[in-house]
Amino acid sequence: MRFLGVHPGPLLYSKIFLRLEPLGLELVAQAARRAGHAVRLIDLQVENHPAYFRLLDSWRPDVVAFSCNYLANVPDIVDLAKATKARLPDTFVCVGGHSASFIASTLVEHGAGAIDCVLKGEGEAAMPLLLATIEAGAGVGSVPGAVTASGEGPPPVFVDSLDDLMPARDLLGHRRKYFLGSLDPCASIEFSRGCPWDCTFCSAWTFYGRSYRTVSPQRVVEDLRSIREPGVFIVDDVAFVQERHGMEIAEAIIRAGIRKQYYLETRGDVLLRNKDVFRAWKKLGLEYMFIGLEAIDEEGLRKHRKRVSLGRNFEALEFARSLGIMIAINLIADPDWGHERFRIVREWGVELPEVINISVNTPYPGTESWATEGGRVASRDYRLYDIQHAVLPTRLPLTEFYDELVTTQRAFYRKHLGWQRVMDTAGVIARHLMRGQTNFVRSLFLLDRVYRPELLLADHAVPVAYQMPLPRPVASAQAIGRALYIHPPRGRKGRAIDSATERFVEETRMGITP
Fold it and tell me: Which one of 39, 338, 466, 508 has the fewest beta carbons within 10 angstroms of its own beta carbon?
């Protein structure tokens, strides 16, 4: 069968700071190819709709699968699905991915017959089964994780081993378009999957059932050897939760003689607990680290259920600075913030040397926040669910909220963008330009043109074609996690961590679920 995988277009922040290769879609594509199917991919972050329709007309795929990892892409995916069915009525159209898993039946309804199936859970496990079922002419309702207009099939299943997976990077052109800050170009890689914690704003733990699985060092080295790009983004939700795993990968990379520049995301308490791992990775080429600080006071940390004290977070920043690693910090702006709160955060942030990003507190389907706060959202327009727009009612008039938000973010980035950044990174920029890479250089001047309060406000006035349904009431706090899980939790046996790390996780979570 001819299988076409499609990644939708860019979101607001990906127009400025980064453009990542669609690693999840590449992994699903390779699983389909190994099952004996002809496979092609198109990434609409770097190509356009006319290119997609030309590919449809020339290749006429039997199955088109859209990757839906972000809610803001839903309208684009639904419209493309409808256009695909109008062009090729006999083509099977499905949608999968992280966000799609939490709104599967709603996506089928939005499609109005254009979306034949939504696959919940890990696509690498489900897609080969779905393709075999379609090829056999059988009903897809028997496929684990399949949701159709007729109902829902068996629960999703995990792949047997993450070592069985490899991405089909060769199927994507325009690889030089992928970048992350000054890592230009940049590929992506996976060392582990899942998260054992349970923060209120996150859906990684509800998707994976609080499991944590790892890729072997040997498989990591094999994947790294296939990567031509000098920059590599480690996509793990929390890098190096398990100290031994991080060290074993580092040692294997050293033996293989691989040299890259790395960017990763982790928690402050993990960084402090596993200092030797991060020291080793600094020597390997770790240049950038993203830490979700989330709040600058204890009250804010409790709200997001991050059981890491401010003192420990700031100690983690000091340790990272001592290693010479560039740190990016995330703060969550609450819609309840007023002028004074923005001023305090702004004055705090401009004194720090780190890159600081502000995201807006956004309840997403699949998160505990959605179950508890989703009923009071001011907008159910998918396009606004990009953590840059306010979808909850704001204390300030929306115009003033966006003025403060953009003013604060610009104050933080003024340290790192524009001509001053060009002067500070002249050597890096020169090397990029010598290789014909311009993504990073362009990003230094895009913020003021793309991220503007009047543009954010105008997005609220755009007519809404598709709206999310409000969350169903949950009887108790204990029932929230169970209601949100995509992959059922397997308890302790689902986490590839030693007993000491398990105790550390339990001591640093404020959870309501087993």
Answer: 338
